[in-house]
TrEMBL record:
Species whose genome carries this gene: Floccifex porci
Pfam family, one: ABC_tran
Keyword Transcription regulation among record annotations: no
Transmembrane stretches, start-end: none
Protein name (database record): ABC transporter ATP-binding protein
Gene3D superfamilies for the chain: P-loop containing nucleotide triphosphate hydrolases (3.40.50.300)
SUPFAM superfamilies named among the record's database cross-references: P-loop containing nucleoside triphosphate hydrolases (SSF52540)
Chain ranges of the ABC transporter domain: 8-249
Entry GO terms, CC: membrane
Family the UniProt entry places it in: Belongs to the ABC transporter superfamily.
Protein keywords: ATP-binding, Nucleotide-binding, Transport
The keyword Transport belongs to this UniProt entry's keyword annotation: yes
Source taxonomy: Bacteria, Bacillati, Bacillota, Erysipelotrichia, Erysipelotrichales
GO molecular function, one term: ATP hydrolysis activity
Length: 375
């Protein structure tokens, strides 16, 4: 019997996927010997056991391919365990893959009725809430357009607005919030805080470690398909980052010295052509840089003068995107950079920020510049 205090119970659960290797050399062989070929099983999750109590806000963290999204899909019953058990207690709603559960030819309004009915709401229930759903989504007149015309951010707005209005006891969220603009992300997290206070159970997969530490009451770290650590968010995040750094060092040692060095970088703030208010106390310069060169040097200049004492910090979101592209050779602790510049040192007018990444032999691996105006 499931403990009434728990929203989710997982007992010694494993999940494997079958991989079929086709040995046919042509269409004829495919048709004649369709059932031949080798089969192997890839174990994604290994003997996971955990309980999530009602009212907890839990983050699932881990690198790409660790199994955290698979665990979330098992909770939604999209997948079923290969062995072990997983039980849920209460009405459940989920925000997983972008556009899942939406009919692309229907309008946003029609999809509200379609999607909310899947979660068990009657038409009368939806009629009472539809204005609130549309208002929260901020889609305006686009609510009457087919969702195939929507951007990824608009999809997310609609999906989130429906999900928070179906009176679910358990809300499961994958990395979908990452596609929204900052304003709507902040609005979503504020709403999640409200749901926390109402005693809802929230399980979220995210690469934003700030969200994990600030919003969640507990963090679960999945590493190579196993439950590596479960506990207080800041402690779990610190251990996770240390492991990433250790894995990075070990992988770097195995790589040949003649590997092609490369880098990517970006300036988050100030935006290109942004107009900055001169009355504010300081100007934040902020961005990120990824490179496979451990000896590289990051340089930031403002109006041709090098900016000193740049602060480097972890960026889990950037690491998640570039980890595979750089074969895991990224130092997760220093992907982000930032510096506050006193506004009193800057005059009104046009200014230019240049960020560059340099390797030891003096080559520039990547460079980015943006202009902004102080008024």
């Amino acid at each position: 019997m499931m403990d009434k205090q728990n929203a989710i119970e997982v007992k010694d659960m494993s999940k494997s996927f079958k991989i079929q290797h086709d040995t046919a050399k042509g269409l004829k062989e495919k048709l004649l010997f369709w059932n031949r070929g080798t089969v192997e099983y890839h174990e994604v999750l290994k003997h996971i056991s955990l309980n999530i109590k009602k009212g907890e806000t839990v983050a699932l963290i881990g690198t790409n391919g660790s199994g955290k999204s698979t665990l979330l899909k098992l909770m939604t019953k999209i997948y079923y365990p290969t062995s072990g058990t997983l039980e849920t207690n209460g009405k459940l709603t989920s925000l997983l893959e972008l556009g899942a559960g939406f009919h692309t030819e229907f309008t946003g309004r029609e999809n509200i009725y379609f999607n909310a009915s899947i979660f068990g709401l009657t038409r009368a229930d939806i009629d009472k809430r539809i204005d609130e759903i549309i208002e929260f989504s901020e889609l305006g007149d686009f609510i009457n357009s087919p969702v195939r015309t929507y951007s990824s951010g608009m999809f997310m707005r609609l999906a989130f607005s429906v999900a928070i209005n179906v009176d679910a006891d358990i809300l499961l969220i994958d990395e979908i919030l990452a596609v929204g603009d900052q304003h709507f992300q902040d609005k979503c997290y504020a709403k999640l805080e409200e749901l926390k206070k109402e005693g809802k159970t929230i399980v979220i997969v995210t690469h934003s470690l700030d969200v994990v530490k600030e919003m969640c009451t507990r963090a679960i770290w999945i590493y190579n398909g196993e439950l590596k650590m479960d506990g207080e968010p800041s402690l779990v995040v610190d251990a996770y980052l240390k492991q990433i750094a250790e894995d990075h060092k070990n992988k770097s040692k195995k790589v040949s010295k003649d590997i092609e060095l490369k880098a990517d970088l970006f300036i988050d703030e100030p935006d290109q052509y942004e107009v900055v208010d001169s009355t504010q106390d300081s100007l934040l310069l902020r961005g990120w840089c990824v490179t496979n060169d451990d000896e590289s040097v990051l340089k930031v200049s403002l109006d041709g003068k090098e900016v000193e004492e740049i602060e480097r910090h972890p960026r889990g979101d950037v690491y998640a995107v570039y980890y595979e592209m750089y074969d895991g050779m990224l130092n997760a602790d220093i992907l982000g950079w930032k510096k506050n510049v006193m506004m009193s040192n800057l005059e009104k007018g046009i200014h230019k920020v240049v960020v560059s990444c340099w390797c030891e032999d003096g080559r520039c691996l990547a460079s980015k510049e943006q202009t902004f105006t102080i008024e």
